[in-house]
Amino acid sequence: MKYIEVTFTMESTDLFRDLLIDTLGNEGPYESFVETPDGLKAYVQSPEFDSHWLAATVEAFPVPLRYEVAEMEDRDWNAEWEATHEAVTVKYNGGSIWVRAPFHPHRTDVDYEIIIEPKMSFGTAHHPTTYMMLSYVAELPMVGRRVLDMGCGTAVLAILAKMRGAAYVAGIDVDEWAFRNAQENAATNGVQVDLKLGDATSIDGNYDVIIANINRNILLADMERYAAALNPGGTLLLSGFYEADVPALVEKGTALGMNLISKKNRNDWAAIQLNKVKSETKH
Predict the structure, then answer these.
(1) Which residue in 87, 84, 121, 80 sits closest to 102, CA to CA?
(2) How far apart are CA 43 and CA 30, in angstroms?
(3) Helix 176-188 vs helix 156-163: crossing angle, to nearest 10
(4) Gap between the terminal Cα atoms of the chain
(5) What is the rounded distance in angstroms from the CA atom of residue 134 to the CA atom of residue 111?
(6) pLDDT of residue 56
(7) 98-130: per-residue pLDDT in tens?
(8) Contact 234, 210 (CB under 8 A)
(9) How far apart are CA 240 and CA 220, in angstroms?
(10) With b meaning 16 or more CB within 10 Å and e meaning fewer, what string describes 256-272?
(11) Cβ(269)–Cβ(129) under 8 Å?
(12) What pTM value is reported for the model?
């Protein structure tokens, strides 16, 4: 999949950089961002790039923005990332997870070790949302459960769920690159994950736990499908949004018969746990 790189320059970067990220990621299709001294680099898949939307967004932004658009090569990023890619230790209640690339050392002093090929797919535990979701999967009961990782990226969350004893784990991603990367990572870690290329319309069957680390707009649009596929009493774990977005997601979840159980926050990003209300037994 080819990507478009948009380089933004602006004044008052400390005040407005996060707002720009939120606008591009939640209102638009941009997937990843790199901060620069005078602005930001933003990345979007070529088919999703809309020059008219971008121009209108820049025009409406509260401070002047300058931007340049460049098409990136469709290539394997592994060789480029190896030089700077670092392993991550994820801490959770009572334990730790070591998320590493194949070229990092093996460790025996952690509870779980997950090997992830650092390609373009999202999910290497460096981002706060992936970190929080890994901690959720590590803390909540998984033994014997049916788990769906929606927008699975590298499948790091699905892999951990399977390591923790889930009976069945499925992963769905709309991007073919992520789908192939997820297949490789599941095989590398010696776990069975049923992977599928598609979006929320591809969900079939029912699950005890559904994980979705995407972005606010997609989550709001697809939450009804998640709720329908979730067993009564089941858990929905959501991230990919900022703390300010939590009320909208909780409100949507409540309308669909789910209650907020807990919330995590890391560097202004948020993750929430919703549980589907069990139906009352009729006599």
Answers:
(1) 87
(2) 6
(3) 30
(4) 55
(5) 13
(6) 95
(7) 999 888 899 999 999 999 986 654 566 788 999
(8) yes
(9) 12
(10) bebeeeeebeeeebbbb
(11) yes
(12) 0.74
